[in-house]
Specification:
Distance between the termini: 23 Å
Shape: globular
Structural class: mainly alpha
Strand content: under 5%
Order of helices and strands: HHHHHHHHHHH
Largest sheet: none
Number of helices: 11
Number of strands: 0
Length: 186
């Protein structure tokens, strides 16, 4: 960390400010390139008057598919919108909720797994101490910066990250920067 922080000291984690949009973007971007995800996102985002759960629920499936979304991603986005619209998510209480409770709430939504929920904690709620051990970039960053490029187990990664607490989100961000200097935003 001592070597990385001076290299990337000016940039930082930033929130987009809208939970529904943040989670929608993560669904749209699943399993496709960043460039393709941005293209599909731009077309999808232009469909409703405003990108809100209620407006997404009014969209036609055919229009969403024409924007480049797979049938599965349409299902995921509709389920996300239903969770927000119905009040099943405790959005107004998230600031006071434990990370694991928020993760449990989010993974109940189709198309959102633990990794996506952890990215949400880091990039939307700006939680400082999230350690996404399923993140390939984090594991690779630890391997390169702490183990001379040798493969690293999740257990070894967790052990290295103990020294980062209570700032493991920040340290993860620096691990990512060590691999790709351009900051990622969700």
């Amino acid at each position: 960390m001592k070597r990385l922080i001076p290299r990337f000291g000016d940039a930082c984690l930033q929130s987009r400010g809208d939970a529904f949009v943040t989670l929608s973007r993560s669904i749209v971007g699943q399993q496709i390139s960043v460039k393709a995800a941005q293209s599909v996102w731009n077309r999808f985002e232009a469909l409703p008057k405003r990108l809100t759960p209620a407006h997404v629920l009014k969209l036609k499936v055919d229009d969403m598919r024409a924007a480049g979304l797979s049938a599965r991603k349409v299902e995921y986005l509709v389920d996300l919108a239903l969770h927000f619209d119905s009040g099943r998510l405790h959005v107004n209480q998230w600031d006071d909720m434990d990370d694991e409770d928020i993760i449990a709430e989010l993974v109940a939504i189709r198309g959102i797994g633990r990794w996506t929920a952890e990215m949400f904690l880091m990039f939307h709620l700006l939680r400082p101490d999230v350690l996404p051990l399923d993140d390939v970039g984090l594991i690779k960053g630890i391997s390169q910066n702490y183990f001379s490029g040798e493969p690293v187990s999740r257990s070894e990664a967790r052990e290295v990250a103990e020294g980062w607490a209570p700032w493991r989100s920040v340290a993860t961000w620096y691990m990512w920067r060590s691999l790709e200097p351009l900051p990622v935003a969700y």
